[in-house]
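Hi support team,

I'm filing this because I wasn't sure whether my run with NAP finished correctly. The job status page said complete, but I'd like someone to confirm that the output block is well-formed before I use it downstream. Pasting the exact inputs I used:
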Amino acid sequence: VRAVRIHEYGPPEVLKLEEVPEPHVGPGDALIESAANGVVYSETQVRAGRMAEFGLAGPAFPYTFGWDVAGTIVAVGPEVDSSMVGRRVIASTAGSGAYAERVVVPVNAAPQVTGTTWPTLVEIPDGLGFVEACALQRQGRIALALIREASLEKGQSVLVTAAAGALGTVLVQLARSAGAGMIVGAAGGAEKLNLLDHLGVDIAVDYSSSPRWYDEVRTATGGGVDVVFDAVGGEVARGAFAAAADGRGRIIVYGFSSGELAELRMAELLRRGLTVLGFAGARFAQRQDYLRGLQAEILDLAAKGSVVPVVGQTFLLEEASQAHIAVEQRQTTGKTLLTP
Ligand SMILES: NC(=O)c1ccc[n+]([C@@H]2O[C@H](COP(=O)([O-])OP(=O)(O)OC[C@H]3O[C@@H](n4cnc5c(N)ncnc54)[C@H](OP(=O)(O)O)[C@@H]3O)[C@@H](O)[C@H]2O)c1
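And here is everything the job wrote out:
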């Protein structure tokens, strides 16, 4: 089978499409004929050699890349119900192997201690395609978890940074269905803002072109935003914090795609009366049923049309390096997928 492997850490070009033996299907495993492979932002950081930050030991090379896949189960190993063969699923690998034509996943594995790979196999509901389901894998369930953690109340205003991204596009839609008041989508560049308008945000703000973009947000929301979701960190996060409403703003920090976690001084929290919540999905790594429930719920919402999966770009397996370049260079909108 064809699979994308690396023989060393490095720039996107280290991703190579190679012919490899069909993966071994062990006890508790399922073999999936891939229809789509999800590209995850953090995978680019792992490829670059920052494994330790994701709790992963360095893999033995060659290492077959990839965590997420959507496809049809074509075989199962011992201890797995054989009636699963033929089912359409999304699933995550135990840490490697998803950028491939055939992918082995654990069906019910004990959670990995990696914090990045949570084997969560979920059946795709009727009416939802592989590509759409794959778009909502991982980021879809995290977006749902974030909305819950935020305890968003009806009518409250929301600001999402990197709002045109894989997670952001789901988050703005879920905020709408949770009854948010004004929704502000913030992102970098005109194309991303167009997408946000299309997704129905009330205000789309470009933080790449306007240094004091948060003033615009404070004015439009009548003094500041109730709930801020930040995935970017650095300068963007500092702007997002400034946009929070004094006396009631809640800030949920769940990523730092800029590479820098923003500092927020205790004195400012105290003076402005803000609340900050740190969110790491890895916290749920031991709660397989919760994760599976979230994943199934977001797929059902999409099957009903309540959430629209956004696939911004699709690459062939042999173009995996181009997919990573697009992600690293901030050129992507919505989810990035590979197809065999
Ligand atoms: N806490 C958790 O459990 C958890 C789980 C999943 C993901 N995350 C985090 O959530 C964030 C979004 O993940 P995603 O998969 O949906 O990715 P994504 O939003 O599709 O892509 C990342 C986005 O971050 C923005 N960005 C800002 N500075 C960047 C830089 N220097 N390099 C690259 N991108 C930069 C870009 O949007 P703009 O150009 O619009 O700024 C880019 O499109 C990531 O930070 C990820 O690590 C956290």
